[in-house]
Amino acid sequence: MEPYSNVIYILGTAGSGKSALTMKFSEWLYDAGWSVIRMNMDPGVRQLPYTPDVDVRDYVNLDQIIEQYELGPNGALIAATDILVTKIDDIKQEIESFDADYIIVDTVGQMEVFAYRSSGLLFVTALSKSSVVVHLIDSLLAKTPASFVSMVLLGASLKVRFPIPQITVLSKTDLISEDEIERICKWSNPEFLADALEIATRGLQRELNVTLLNALKMQGYIGEVIPVSSVTMKGIDALGGDIENIFNKHKWDSEESYRWESE
Ligand SMILES: Nc1nc2c(ncn2[C@@H]2O[C@H](COP(=O)(O)OP(=O)(O)OP(=O)(O)O)[C@@H](O)[C@H]2O)c(=O)[nH]1
Ligand SMILES: [Mg+2]
Predict the structure, then answer these.
(1) Which one of 52, 77, 109, 200 is most buried, by most CB atoms within 10 A?
(2) Distances (CA, A) of 20 to 15, 74, 82, 181
(3) Which residues pair with 7 in a beta bridge?
(4) What is the pLDDT of residues 43-80, one digit of tens each?
(5) Residue spans per domain, the chain
(6) Where are the alpha helices (H) located in 39-144, listed in sequence order?
(7) Pocket test residue of 18, 106, 141 for ligand 1, highest count of atoms within 8 A of CB
(8) Homologous superfamily assigned to 1-129
(9) What pTM, to 2 d.p., does this model score?
């Protein structure tokens, strides 16, 4: 059987802490005795808090694309990611040359470029069969029950797209109080979330939220949320434990995990 590296895709809204977590979690894995590499998937990033081992900026030049195709920054980002797809084999070869146990992929700031275009899916398919999505919910964007529901919906839309296991992280928790962390984490229990929506929303907004919550609950889209801070390192052990469990548990050689509708 072909040996697979374990790939961890870090996804989340702009500024949710993807790059900071990539750095801190790679250190955690390294300290735990694993070999790990960090891959930057953002062609437009100027500065990173870590030195990437594999960097898509070595394969595409965003400024050149902007000039050559007369595109704005987002159009250029989409074009750059499409160009990267044509270079997947080279990128894969570079990744494999490290022979690492884990690859952490720090995805592009504009989440939709990776999450909702076919290029992201093509990368997930090509790089390894053994992979997991870590979806970051920014603490500052999840403080009310309704905003928490919209973040869970975002996570559900990732699950719909990527047929691989997913872990939900509440990021940047050092920026909110312990009470707020506890309250938000409790909302991962649909009963508590329903109660909170009852108090905090009314009218049509409540109706829509409760309907969505019921659908999310029925499909199992609401689950544990791990509170993490890349500043204090809170929750990094718990995240590491969950990720190791997922990679131990799944039968990655099964073709079953890669069934999706062709695009
Ligand atoms: N207080 C605090 N700040 C954080 C944490 N993680 C990231 N930040 C800060 O939040 C900002 C954005 O962090 P990044 O790690 O660059 O976030 P990102 O999701 O990679 O951002 P984009 O790639 O631009 O979407 C930076 O100023 C970080 O220093 C955290 O756990 N706690
Ligand atoms: Mg980033």
Answers:
(1) 77
(2) 10, 23, 26, 19
(3) 103, 131
(4) 999 999 999 999 999 999 999 999 999 999 999 999 99
(5) 1-129
(6) 62-69, 73-85, 88-98, 111-115, 118-127
(7) 18
(8) P-loop containing nucleotide triphosphate hydrolases (3.40.50.300)
(9) 0.93
